Amino acid sequence: MSLKQKQKQQQELQHNNKAKSDNNNNKNDPIDILGIHHITAIASNPQKIIDFYSQVLGLRLVKLTVNFDDPATYHLYFGDEIGHPGTILTFFPWPDAPKGRRGTGQVITVSFLISVNSTSYWIDRFKNQKIHFQGPTKRFGNNEEVLTLYDPDGLELELVAHKSGYDTTLNVWKDGPIPSEHAIRGFYSVTLSEEGYERTASVLTDELGFRFIGQDGSRFRYQAATDTPVAATISIASNKNTIYQKSNSNHNNIVDVLCLPYTQQGFVGVGTVHHVAWRTPTDEQQNILRNKIIKARLNATPVIDRTYFHSVYFREPGGVLFEIATNPPGFTIDEKKEELGTHLMLPIWLEPMRKDLEKVLPKVKLPKKEEKEQQQVKRTKNNVLKKAITIENDREIEH
Fold this sequence. Notes:
The protein has helices at residues 3-28, 46-56, 119-128, 198-207, 283-295, 354-360, 369-398, and strands at residues 35-43, 60-67, 70-79, 88-93, 106-114, 133-139, 144-150, 156-161, 187-194, 211-216, 219-223, 234-236, 242-245, 254-259, 273-280, 304-305, 310-315, 321-326. By secondary structure, the protein is of the alpha+beta class. It has one domain (35-370): 2,3-Dihydroxybiphenyl 1,2-Dioxygenase, domain 1 (Roll), CATH 3.10.180.10. The chain starts with a helix and ends with a helix.
């Protein structure tokens, strides 16, 4: 064997050993962000928010507590049957806060997942409830069908019909006003509005473990790492600005970054999102992510105990407040599953102030079981009436 052949063989051996080493390292790498944990917005009137999200959208009020940093303010948590991470939308009702302004440096849209067969149900529901909506519109080719609406304070919401909503009825709020087959399945995605997207994208991919999966005009899509990998196949739609990847993605692990360079800076206030929290499985993993964030020269808070999860906060380069939140302990740590959201819950250090806080906090009417039963009876009557009309129409056609 010549000297050149030996050198080449040695180089190939070194390359193979490095590849094996890289693969082993990747196997041992900790899991990055799993997806959305919760989203927190600012509201004005707590009762209007409770009525809209529980009775119109059918989300369960899973926790009635206070803002731990401002105990004279409620903190309302809505989610699925037990408030699984990835389903939780929360609110700080600040009646005297100024109205927010949509713009860059903000989360501007909260998107929920529904079944692909549920769009017509929600259109009819919004019409009956006299709720203004737009759509349905298509996005990323024909992969998503989107209904857009606004809550009582003007927060932009979307219901996204997608195939990933088929098999996720297990944890929907079964005592709620929406039939399980049409109920919201949790978050689908969250949309950030940015003056430029590159630095935000760098934090998402390098520090949090998201990966770029597609582009639709000025909308850049990133997905958190999951057990189901994104397929490598890339499809290009007829619109040259629309590129999307085929994916068996789970829901609540998508973030869209809208690049809007000529849009004014947003202002956080009533009707806007305060922060978005990304979920991580353990305290250990949260600490690893916190160290990565600090190494990226971003200011991260110490770990803060929020009773139902542990939190670390930091701002991404575009100005959006991010949180890293742990999956455990969860909302059943201080209430039974069947009693979630039915009592004012306080952390241990605020219990001595309970009587004073109950005097300061506005009285709210919570969803009652009797109301749910009445809604079920009304829904059953409506279904029977629709069937009767259909049968009568069929008879007229036959004759």
